[in-house]
C-alpha cells in the first residue's frame, strides 16, 4: 500500500489548501452536493467564483462558482468576524489594523464584531488575531458598501 501522500484520492475528493501547520481544507462533492471540511468542521457550499480543476477524469470535478476570492481591489465590504474577546485585545487589534477612520465603524455584536474593510484584508486580520491566540470561528462577507479604504 502506498503512503498516504502518494495514494490516489477517492472520486469526488480534492484537497484545496494545505496550511503552514500542515492542516488541510478539503473540498468534497457527492452528486450535486458540495462541502468543505476543515478539521472537525463541515461547511456547506457557498458562492465562490473560481474554476477548480484536477486530473480527475470525472467532468463534475471542474466547476464554476461565484464570490470574491480574487478581489484585490480596495472595494469595501461589511464583514462579520465571530470570535470571543475576553479582554478587549481583539477589538484593539481590529481597530489598530483598520486605522482611525474605519475603527469608528467597528461594532461589537453578541458573538464578535462587524466592521468594514476590503475583502483582501481578511486573511491578514485572521492571521493577526491567531498570533494573539484569538480564534476566529467564522468570517462572513456581507454586502459591498460605499466608501474608500484609504
Give a summary of the structure in a few sentences:
The chain is an alpha+beta fold.
Descriptive keywords:
150 residues; alpha+beta; Alpha-Beta Plaits; 2 domains; 2 helices; 8 strands
Descriptive overview:
With 150 residues, this protein is α+β, with helices and mostly antiparallel strands. It has 2 domains: 4-61, no CATH class; 76-145, Alpha-Beta Plaits, CATH 3.30.70. Helix content is 17%, strand content 34%. It is built from 2 helices and 8 strands, in the order βββββαββαβ. The strands form 2 sheets. The chain has a 4-stranded antiparallel sheet with strand order 1-2-3-4, with no helix packed on it. Strands 6-7-5-8 form a 4-stranded antiparallel sheet, covered by helices on one side. The radius of gyration is 18 Å and the shape is globular. Residues 46-56 and 59-66 have low confidence and may be disordered.
Which second-level CATH architecture of the largest domain applies? 2-Layer Sandwich
The amount of helix comes to 10-25%
Tell how many strands the DSSP assignment holds.
8
Strand content: 25-35%
Instruction: Count every helix, treating DSSP H or I runs of 4 or more residues as helices.
Output: 2
Contiguous uncertain segments of 5+ residues:
46-56, 59-66
Task: Provide the structure class.
Answer: alpha+beta
Strands in their spatial order, largest beta sheet: 1-2-3-4
Largest sheet: 4 strands, antiparallel
Can you tell me the number of structural domains? 2
Compute the average pLDDT: 77
As for the CATH topology of the largest domain, it is Alpha-Beta Plaits
Q: What general form does the structure show?
A: globular
SSE series: EEEEEHEEHE
What is the CATH top level name of the largest domain? Answer: Alpha Beta
Through-space gap between termini: 56 Å
Radius of gyration: 18 Å
Amino acid at each position: 500500500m502506498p503512503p498516504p501522500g502518494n495514494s490516489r484520492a477517492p472520486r469526488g475528493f480534492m484537497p484545496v489548501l494545505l496550511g503552514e501547520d500542515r492542516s488541510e481544507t478539503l473540498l468534497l462533492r457527492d452528486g450535486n452536493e458540495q462541502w468543505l471540511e476543515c478539521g472537525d468542521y463541515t461547511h456547506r457550499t457557498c458562492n465562490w467564483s473560481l474554476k477548480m480543476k484536477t486530473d480527475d477524469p470525472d467532468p463534475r470535478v471542474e466547476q464554476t462558482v461565484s464570490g470574491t476570492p480574487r478581489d484585490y481591489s480596495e472595494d469595501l465590504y461589511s464583514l462579520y468576524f465571530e470570535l470571543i474577546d475576553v479582554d478587549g485585545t481583539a477589538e484593539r487589534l481590529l481597530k489598530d489594523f483598520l486605522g482611525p477612520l474605519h475603527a469608528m465603524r467597528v461594532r461589537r455584536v453578541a458573538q464578535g464584531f462587524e466592521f468594514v474593510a476590503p475583502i483582501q484584508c481578511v486573511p491578514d486580520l485572521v492571521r493577526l488575531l491567531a498570533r494573539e491566540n484569538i480564534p476566529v470561528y467564522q468570517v462572513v462577507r456581507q454586502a459591498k458598501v460605499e466608501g474608500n479604504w484609504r
